[in-house]
Amino acid sequence: MQSIVIDSGPLIALFNGNDRYHEQAVRFIQNLQGNLYTNIAVITEVVHMLDFSQQAQQDFLTWVEQAVIIDQGTVEDWESIIQLLQKYADLPADFADASLIVLCQRLNTLDVASIDSDFTVYRNYLKKPFNNLFWD
């Protein structure tokens, strides 16, 4: 089954009905063909951005626990994340994005779901572009 690494943007949109990408996020999840992966850095971003509603935060945390594989390897990826932050300092890349790039490398996938245009610039360690399925 396909491994898809999901960034905070689609997750925020999924749980915020006022987000301009809400309907697209709902369709993306409804049509999902694969396993979603993310990490604590992304989950932290999402909960922070859903701070307008404690219920939305709780709903997200309950859903993500059931629907997404939460990777535990971010601490082991620390050096690689730092290297990517240095490499993409001109964007600037953030910690969550860098951690997801490394997660993609560990999962051997180029498939991501993100609203960020930065994922059109980022490359994996073989210099291959990512395939952003959120825009498909």
Automatic annotation (TrEMBL):
SUPFAM superfamilies hit by this protein: PIN domain-like
Coiled-coil zones: none
Domain of life: Bacteria
Gene3D superfamilies according to UniProt: 5'-nuclease
Domain PIN: 4-120
Protein's recorded name: Pilus assembly protein
